[in-house]
Amino acid sequence: MEELNMPIILNGKETAQKYNDNLKNSINELVQKGNRQPKLVVIQVGANPASSLYIRNKKRACERVGILFDHIIFDEDVKETKVVETIKELNKNNNVDGILVQLPLPKTINEDFVINTISPEKDADGFCPVTLGNVILNKSEIYPGTPKGIILLLKEYNVDVEGKNVVVIGRSNIVGKPISIMLTNMSATVTVCHSKTKNLKDITKNADILIVA
């Protein structure tokens, strides 16, 4: 990539459409060869409006590319054991390829315990400890969605991160931490900034690549 004096913002909309088209074509080819459609199951506890919106968006995304979508809704007062039992049944279901538990969960349910119940092979969000451990070891076939999308976007723009100073703003388990690890595995020099970081302005000025996570 040529050196640029002015910063550029990478727009993911066109890249996302390209990958969606490729995925749709791949699924169509699989089905035409006699294979079943892949299937995602989303589990929701309660009726949080933001969670419901995210799930509707996930459903639309699945429909666009030909992935079957199931939505299991539990009342907010559901017992943790019921949710865990449901996940275990889905783990054993050979017609289910991905399982996703929509967060947040009610305070009466242990999020970590529930997420840990998902089989690593069906961990659609990429949040379970086995998945994240493999990400750290650079041996994972599954990655958290947003960090993986960032990597694909950088590759689409032919941005070589090796040896580059990358500043990641945010240290969440969902985006900030995974993307910093993934970039480190790609030989970038990564600085993670957060709410307690001093001289944030000076740090970001020296970044070759800035990721707001």
From TrEMBL:
Pfam families per UniProt: THF_DHG_CYH, THF_DHG_CYH_C
InterPro entries: Aminoacid_DH-like_N_sf, NAD(P)-bd_dom_sf, THF_DH/CycHdrlase, THF_DH/CycHdrlase_cat_dom, THF_DH/CycHdrlase_CS, THF_DH/CycHdrlase_NAD-bd_dom
Source organism, top-level taxon: Eukaryota
One annotated GO biological process: tetrahydrofolate interconversion
Keyword Hydrolase recorded: yes
Alphabetized UniProt keyword annotations: Hydrolase, Multifunctional enzyme, NADP, One-carbon metabolism, Oxidoreductase
Pathway(s): One-carbon metabolism; tetrahydrofolate interconversion
Reaction(s) catalysed by this chain's protein: (6R)-5,10-methenyltetrahydrofolate + H2O = (6R)-10-formyltetrahydrofolate + H(+)
Domain Tetrahydrofolate dehydrogenase/cyclohydrolase NAD(P)-binding per the UniProt entry, residue ranges: 144-213
Residue ranges occupied by any Tetrahydrofolate dehydrogenase/cyclohydrolase catalytic domain in the UniProt entry: 10-125
GO cellular component: cytosol
Keyword Translocase among UniProt keywords: no
Any one GO molecular function term: methylenetetrahydrofolate dehydrogenase (NADP+) activity
PANTHER family: C-1-TETRAHYDROFOLATE SYNTHASE, CYTOPLASMIC, C-1-TETRAHYDROFOLATE SYNTHASE, CYTOPLASMIC-RELATED
Subunit structure, as described in the record: Homodimer.
Protein name: Methenyltetrahydrofolate cyclohydrolase
Record organism: Zophobas morio
Record lineage: Eukaryota, Metazoa, Ecdysozoa, Arthropoda, Hexapoda
